[in-house]
Amino acid sequence: MKNEEMNAAEASVTANIYNVPVGTIMPFMGNSTKMAGLAASGWLHCNGDQVNKDQYAALFDMIEYSCGGSGVNFNLPDLRGMFVRGVSAGSGRDTDAGSRRKQGTNDTVGDVPTSWQGDEFKSHHHSTKVWVNHNKVIRDDGSNITPANEERTVDSNDVGGSETRPKNVSAYYIIFAGLPR
């Protein structure tokens, strides 16, 4: 059996055993050297690389140019440093679903897989008012004034880091591309 056929048979059996559809994305906790070895089994790093659509025809049929590319090449999703979020699919849970963009562009594509959103912090406002009661103010000429109570606005200090995020653990994201041809 040729090496190519053996890899195809091996990956086909693996995919069938685990029933993994092409386009499935999973976290991978191995190191980068081990991850590079997964390509022979049909798993590719979600790092935005361009790959040949003929070589990875099954994956191209799933994601097409949604992450970039043109002609004979398409881009893999780039999930480095990103959280994956479920497609809202009309649930109303993603109130900004319509503003999602195609990866690497400013083109609005809406609530579809591989769409992207930048950092955002939910709009809010902190306003604190304090009342100052002046007991006595002395003028330059030495005479006293008893001013009325005065309202002043006090701003809070900036607190926090450089982003808003939940607790997290980092991993590589890999995508099942089917078998390379």
UniProtKB/TrEMBL annotation:
Pfam families: Collar
InterPro entries assigned to the protein according to its UniProt record, in alphabetical order: Phage_tail_collar_dom, Phage_tail_collar_dom_sf
Annotated Phage tail collar domain residues: 23-84
Annotated region described as Disordered, given as residue ranges: 90-115, 141-163
Protein name in UniProt: Phage tail collar domain-containing protein
